[in-house]
Amino acid sequence: MWRYALPPRNEIFLILTMNALYNLGIAAMRLGAKLAATRNKKIKKMVEGQSRTFDILTREITAADRGHIVWIHAASLGEFEQGRPLIEMIKRTMPEQRILLTFFSPSGYEVRKDYKGADVVCYLPFDTPSNVTQFLDMVSPQVAIFVKYEFWGNYLQQLSHRQIPTYIISSIFRPGQIFFRFYGGIFRRMLDCFTRIYVQDDKSLQLLASIGVNDVTVAGDTRFDRVSDILASCKPFPIVEQFANSSPMTLIMGSSWQPDEEIVIPYFNSHPGMKLIIAPHEFDDARIKALMARITRPTVLYSEAGTKNIAQYDCLIINCFGILSSCYRYANVAYIGGGFGAGIHNLNEAAVYGIPVVFGPNHSKFKEAHDLIECGGGFSIHNNEEFNKIADRLTSDKQFLAQSGSAAGNYIKSHLGATKLIFSEIFGKQS
Question: Is the pTM of this model over 0.90?
Answer without folding.
Answer: no
